């Protein structure tokens, strides 16, 4: 995807040295476009844990490259297993993290120690390339939903999204935003309602940044405004991403997604979830009881960071100092509230039969 006309991916190997890894510091967006050079596994783990990178597919890709960096220091089996376990513990909810590490280990355990670094970089690059290809395919299957809405209404299509599921959350294209980017490229009149996504404001900071830099019409709204807009017919469909989908179609996504699904259901607004197959957890059937929900620091709720009127970046407290805060990072939307899933293989019902229809090898 592009920033002011220049194409980027969200993670790449530095072409100058051929081994270090570059990422955007997403905690600095949209105020500064800072690129970080990762040179060791601890730096990669910190980038994931601190949300310098976030989004389930991107976390998996960065973890894969983090293991590459670890092997450059010590390619022994004991060190590899230790570093892989450390990376796997950085974020518990997104299934891509464990998926990518397990895939790397499957390749590397059967590789001679002296060949592991080369093999690791090859496998990490393949994971990144496949993610970009999957997201592009999700875009092709999802853009049809926007085309259908345009044909049905004969006017601008208004899409609501929650959190950030664009190219900054993946290697390229994004999941929920991929259909929107393709609709924009095809000349469709599409407009995006961007939920701010408290408490970390990934919508206001990242989704709005992406869409603006790519020239897509959008408006940032408070999280609580979505239901109001749906009641007044100002939302044609909702498309969100996800950090984990169960084999039965339950969806874990950024906190607040469940409330959007309830509002969409009450107002007969289609609620679609864009999901690459790497985000489907075939071992889990009940999302509410089986998916671990990350509890993050209460400081994310009690403080907010932004640009002050004098141009400086400042963090300020917005709650009484004596008030504690709880901060569950995700919630689970039951499959019954999901209109359907958009995968790289096509669209399907959010159900076990629907998913198995596209992925029969998982039966």
TrEMBL record:
The record's GO molecular-function terms, alphabetically, read: S-methyl-5-thioribose-1-phosphate isomerase activity
What is the catalytic activity of this protein? 5-deoxy-alpha-D-ribose 1-phosphate = 5-deoxy-D-ribulose 1-phosphate; 5-(methylsulfanyl)-alpha-D-ribose 1-phosphate = 5-(methylsulfanyl)-D-ribulose 1-phosphate
The cross-references to InterPro entries, in alphabetical order and at most eight, read: IF-2B-related (IPR000649), IF-M1Pi (IPR005251), IF_2B-like_C (IPR042529), Initiation_fac_2B_a/b/d (IPR011559), M1Pi_N (IPR027363), NagB/RpiA_transferase-like (IPR037171)
UniProt KW Repeat keyword: no
One annotated GO biological process: L-methionine salvage from methylthioadenosine
Leader sequence range is: none
Enzyme class, spelled out: isomerase
Pathway it works in: Amino-acid biosynthesis; L-methionine biosynthesis via salvage pathway; L-methionine from S-methyl-5-thio-alpha-D-ribose 1-phosphate: step 1/6
Q: Which UniProt keywords are listed? A: Amino-acid biosynthesis, Isomerase, Methionine biosynthesis
Q: Which residues are the active-site ones?
A: 243 (proton donor)
Summarize where substrate binds, as residue positions.
54-56, 91, 202, 253-254
Give residue numbers for the site Transition state stabilizer: 163
**Could you tell me the EC number(s) of this protein?**
5.3.1.23
Q: Which HAMAP family match?
A: Salvage_MtnA
Query: What protein family does this chain belong to?
Result: Belongs to the EIF-2B alpha/beta/delta subunits family. MtnA subfamily.
**Role description:** Catalyzes the interconversion of methylthioribose-1-phosphate (MTR-1-P) into methylthioribulose-1-phosphate (MTRu-1-P). Also catalyzes the interconversion of 5-deoxyribose 1-phosphate and 5-deoxyribulose 1-phosphate. Part of a bifunctional DHAP-shunt salvage pathway for SAM by-products.
**NCBIfam families, per this entry?**
eIF-2B_rel, PRK05720.1, salvage_mtnA
What this protein is called in its record is: Methylthioribose-1-phosphate isomerase
Q: Per the UniProt entry, what species is this protein from, by scientific name?
A: Limobrevibacterium gyesilva
């Amino acid at each position: 995807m592009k920033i002011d006309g220049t194409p980027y991916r969200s993670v790449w190997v530095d072409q100058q040295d051929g081994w270090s890894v570059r990422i955007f510091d997403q905690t600095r967006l949209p105020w500064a476009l800072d690129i970080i050079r990762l040179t060791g596994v601890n730096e990669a783990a910190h980038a994931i844990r601190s949300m310098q990178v976030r989004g389930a597919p991107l976390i998996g890709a960065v973890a894969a490259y983090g293991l590459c960096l670890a092997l450059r220091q010590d390619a022994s089996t004991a060190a590899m297993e230790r570093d892989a376990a450390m990376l796997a513990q950085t974020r518990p909810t997104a299934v891509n993290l464990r998926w990518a590490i397990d895939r790397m280990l499957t390749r590397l355990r059967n590789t001679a120690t002296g060949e592991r670094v080369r093999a690791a970089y090859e496998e990490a690059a393949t994971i990144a390339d496949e993610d970009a290809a999957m997201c592009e395919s999700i875009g092709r299957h999802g853009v049809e939903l926007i085309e259908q809405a345009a044909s049905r209404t004969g006017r601008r299509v208004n899409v609501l999204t929650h959190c950030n599921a664009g190219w900054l959350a993946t290697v390229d294209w994004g999941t929920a935003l991929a259909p929107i980017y393709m609709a924009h490229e095809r000349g469709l009149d599409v407009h995006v309602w961007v939920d701010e996504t408290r408490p970390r404001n990934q919508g206001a900071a990242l989704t709005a940044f992406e869409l603006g830099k790519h020239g897509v019409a959008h408006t940032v709204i408070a999280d609580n405004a979505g239901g109001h807009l749906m009641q007044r017919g100002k939302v044609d469909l909702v498309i969100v991403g996800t950090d984990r989908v169960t084999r039965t179609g339950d969806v874990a996504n950024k906190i607040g997604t469940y409330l959007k699904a309830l509002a969409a259901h009450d107002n007969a607004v289609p609620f679609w979830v864009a999901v690459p197959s790497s985000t489907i957890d075939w071992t889990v059937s009940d999302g509410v009881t089986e998916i671990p929900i990350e509890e993050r620091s209460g400081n994310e709720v009690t403080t907010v960071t932004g640009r002050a009127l004098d141009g400086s970046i400042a963090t300020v407290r917005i709650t009484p100092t004596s008030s504690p805060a709880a901060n569950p990072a995700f919630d689970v939307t039951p499959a019954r509230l999901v209109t359907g899933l958009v995968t790289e293989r096509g669209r399907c019902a959010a159900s076990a039969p629907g998913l198995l229809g596209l992925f029969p090898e998982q039966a």
